[in-house]
Please model this.
Amino acid sequence: MMKIKRIIKYFIALACHFTGFNYWRIWHLKKHYILMFHRLEEKQDALNISIPVNYFSLLTKWSSGIGELVSMSTLIDAQNPKVRFCITFDDGFKTVSQVGKVAPGIPYILYLSTAYIDSEKEFWAIELEKIMYESNLTSLNLASFNLNEYDLSSDLKKKHAVSMMNYDVKKLHPADIEAVMKYLRLILAINNNDTEDNCFLKWGEVKEMHDKGMEVGGHTHNHIISSRVSPPEFETDIRISNKVISKHLGFTPKHFAYPNGRKQDISVFSRQILIDEGYLSAVTTIEGANNVNDNPYLLKRFNVSVDRIANPWGYPSKAMFTTMLVNPLRLH
Ligand SMILES: [Zn+2]
Model:
């Protein structure tokens, strides 16, 4: 059933693409398309944040063929409407260092969660995925944390449980998230001193990438979601993040990405704090294209994942890409 749905979607995408409809819409509307990535990896993950390098390389070629591929600073400064693309990476995963090899010379921005760079700290979401896949439990009851009971009895159910847990845990205050993680490590007898697997960049690598032209933006220090914390907590975290970037790279960032970034994750106070701390723009994870004069502190993005770009047989498809940007019939 899923496959049939995918095939129908693909044929509609082909029709919209090859009749020229998608291009006509894109060139007529003259919008800004900000593409969001996290990790460059062949292997897909439960969080759906990895994209293989061949997909990435094609996406940069397609984007620069349709419009102008620009840096975030250029995008923010632009005055005249034009089709522009901007490539963004969130968090600071190690695999982003491949961008220079895969697509040499392209402009892109990396939003860093500074507590994770050059540290043994791991993202709770990544750790959660890892420890759940390693565990032999068939179910897990987290009612004592006001969470649900999760079925882990098969690989498919585990995958579903991991994404449900991720969704539920995200809603908690950072201190409560840490409590849940501590509990999981304890009951699953995980020794979290394994530092070999740290998947984040080191400051030396970030500096080298920045020296070669990559822009660096802020993404908070601890990857905190502004609507889950108080204004002083958010402000303190942003200040630490700016200080750390300034210490290692010699400047404070001008562009920001809201962790998690959905409408309900962005508190009303965050914009003023960002302005006070010197930020000129902020990107969300709200889906869509932007007009040249849109609010620079609420920029929309496209979450580019394999299942949105691949055809039903698993190959990257330009028709799927242009259809994602135009979204005719709300297909995506
Ligand atoms: Zn993030």
Notes: Residues 132 and 297 are 36 Å apart (CA to CA). The pocket of zinc ion is lined by residues 90-91, 219, 223, 259 (CB under 6 Å).
